[in-house]
Description:
single chain, about 50% helix
Amino acid sequence: MFISEAMAQGASGGSGFLIQIAPLVLIFAVFYFLLIRPQQKKMKEHRAMVDALTKGDKVITAGGLMGTIDKIIDDRIASVQIAENVKVKVVRSTITEVISDQKSVQKK
């Protein structure tokens, strides 16, 4: 009597599994579209900006230094002039923004 009831309950468990896993799939989809995908897009834009740096670009570093790129030393390091006769070497990935001349004209 008990064995037949237990087997009958276990037979309909296939659709129950899909119902149990559906919220997990939904949560992952929400995280992907709201958190992961925008972060990947932002990283891709930053990488493109860093790769496009050239001599003479006015930049801001993550540490708050503002200066002009004096020389691209290699793939990882750039020389930035922050004052007359003052040059510092910075890791290119720490450059957060390139200041265009039009931005500075608009602020004045």
